[in-house]
Amino acid sequence: MPDQPFPSDGAISGRGTAGAMHLAASEAETLERPFGGRAPVEPEPAAVSAERPRSLWSDAWRDLRRNPVFIVSGLIIIFLLFVSLWPSAIAPGSPLKCDLAKSQQGSAPGHPFGYDGQGCDVYTRTVYGARTSVVVGVCATLGVAVLGSVLGALAGFFGGLWDSFLSRVTDIFFAIPVVLGGLVLLSVVTSNSVWPVIGFIVLLGWPQISRIARGAVITAQQNDYVQAARALGASNSRVLLRHIAPNAVAPVIVVATIALGTYIALEATLSYLGVGLKPPSVSWGIDISAASPYIRNAPHALLWPSGALAVTVLAFIMLGDAVRDALDPKLR
What is the tens place of the pLDDT at every residue in 23-33? Predict the structure, then answer.
């Protein structure tokens, strides 16, 4: 068999510079470390950032920005907060200034909503009534969320006797009718401030948040990262605050947001019945109660505060529904 000719220099050079460049790159990538290991190839920054996972909150915020229900309800709530903080910016008059000569009159220049039975400007009282409703709703929701979350989280985390005791206590509070409890407890209060109403709502509202928090904590405890933290020797407080609480707070936020609108309606109901806020306080419930006897002669005095109350409650309920859809992975 004839010998194969050895490749000439021209044949070697005919392979082109691409092969040489590839060989040089391969040799550069396989440079050895002083102890025999190979130098790692650093990934490109763009690839690292592209593969970085997003958190639940970033995904929720992205979904909320695309949800028209969240946008509409958010704009309404922002307007209500502005009106509550600076009511004189859109209603320069006083809600307590009344003129009996203008009783039950319709709209007039500078008074688009007309006058109520006492001759007070309905527009001004409707604007100032937003402050009371928002203050009661926000403060009561914060109190209910904090108290209910703490008690429910402790019951779900430790279990045992404390869980059984808290469960029986919540059953007792669930058995109390809210309106009837308000009539009994608030009928002995003579203060005209909003704090007795807020305290009553917190007293009867925390069991609902407590059960939600308890169930969320029990579910979060079964995750692998919690078991890993316990195996590494993490204390109970660290496990609860650093690992369980951030992953169990989402359902509490959803329920609290929806409940905020319910608490505003509850304050108006109690004020309508005469056991909530009392004159000279300005409240939508007080104005609705005062306008009810002459609904045929002056329906505008009842229409505007009732409409403002309905829109406010609906805005918070819509906001809660949007937040629930964004935070619940099962609905994605």
Answer: 444 444 444 44
Query: Measured between alpha carbons, how far is residue 173 from residues 164, 227, 259 in Å?
Result: 15, 34, 17
129: nearest Cα among 270, 310, 305: 305
pLDDT in tens, 240-275: 888 888 888 888 998 999 999 999 999 999 999 989
Residue 32 has phi, psi (to 5 degrees) of -90, 145
The CATH T-level fold of domain 57-331 is MetI-like fold (1.10.3720)
Q: What's the confidence (pLDDT) of residue 54?
A: 66
Check residue 242 and report its DSSP letter: I
How far from the centroid of its chain's Cα atoms is residue 236's Cα? Answer: 27
Closest by CA position to 156, among listed 207, 206, 212, 208: 212
Q: How far apart are CA 95 and CA 116, in angstroms?
A: 11
**Dist CA 332 CA 326 (whole Å):** 8
Question: Each residue of 210-231: pLDDT tens digit?
Answer: 999 999 999 888 888 888 888 8
SS3 call for 32 = strand
**181 and 200 Cβ atoms separated by less than 8 Å:** yes
What's the chain's Rg over C-alpha atoms? 33
- What predicted TM-score, i.e. pTM, was given to this entire model? 0.79
- Residue type (1 letter), 126: T
Q: Among 58, 113, 91, 137, which Cα is nearest to 302's? A: 113
Please count the helices (runs of H) and the strands (runs of E) in the chain: 14, 0
For residues 261 and 251, the answer to whether their CB atoms sit within 8 Å is no
CB 125 within 8 A of CB 95: yes
Domain ranges of the chain: 9-50, 57-331
Count how many residues are written for the chain.
332
Closest CA to 136 of 27, 269, 20: 269
